[in-house]
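[Q] Does anyone have a clean structure-token version of this?
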Amino acid sequence: MTGGPDEPAPGADVPDGPDQPFSRTALGGSADDDLAWLDRHPHNRDHHGTSGHGRRRHHHRRHHWYRPRNTIGLPLLALVLVVVGFVLYVNHELSSIRRTPLNAEFSGPASTGTNVLLIASNAPSGAVRADTRTMVVQLIHLSVDGMHASLIDIPRDLLLPAHAGAGRATIATTYSRSGAQALASQVQDALRITLTHVLQVDFAGYVRATDRLGGVDVRTETGLRHLSGDQARAYVDQAGIASIVTGQRAQHWLRGIVEATLTPGVVLNPLKLLGLLHDMMPNLVLGDTLTNGAIRSLLWHARGLSPSQTRYLSVPVLGYRRIGGATVLLPDTQGIRQLGGAIRADNDSGIAVFGN
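[A] Here you go.
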């Protein structure tokens, strides 16, 4: 008897099991017979509705160059280009800063850590001399481990021995007559420390940075106040206040800028960081020891520093006195020597004794 439509003819090569698909067309059937058989054995279809043989044929037609992991390449390349562009722009901005010899030779004992002398005033950044009426001098000491920093105010009216035994002079007088190198020598001799770098900045840079940050919180005598750039400059540059007060107010302003800059909204925003950099660069004059490489090394060294690990101090003084028709601030010579010894030895607890 002849087999039914679903049975193979006698002698045909029958598959070993239901999972072994075959073509009834090859056995003399029609294409409809193939489809009917596949409908009764759906497990022989892949997820595209094709048989295993069709799946293997489709596999050989795939484009092997495409893999999902290759999609990582384009974003990674874009990120690399952004980082390289950022670094090149920063390097360009740093290279545009005016540099001039500001450091002074010093034959005294070497210091541990990094000491940077910051001279700020209302004078334009291109000026050789600062506006001594608004002059602020700060010594920044960064510990050798990069985990502690001290910002020490040196009032402009402070009377110190002049360099090379040329009598005594205030900080402002030395600077106005002889410039930054003479001032650096005077500070080094008084504290018996080595200055690593010297830089000048005018308050216009602080003003622009403050405004870009949307104002900063400044600690004032009446409490914490949120000030714009012009408000902060007016607070620091108030007429009739003592130079030691001017220096302390400038410290609080700078502290507000640093704390606002180190917030996630700024640190994680490359455009804002570039804007701050662009604001400050035209208002700086750097000593020739502050090369681009030295700046990068300094920033890398201080990468773990937080605002809570920074102290704000003033050099020890005895008070104001009228000498030769001028009102000057007399130094506490013994206290200044002790402070200098703590800085030289990178003794953080010894420096902290002189905190404001």
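[Q] Thanks! Anything notable?
[A] The radius of gyration is 37 Å.
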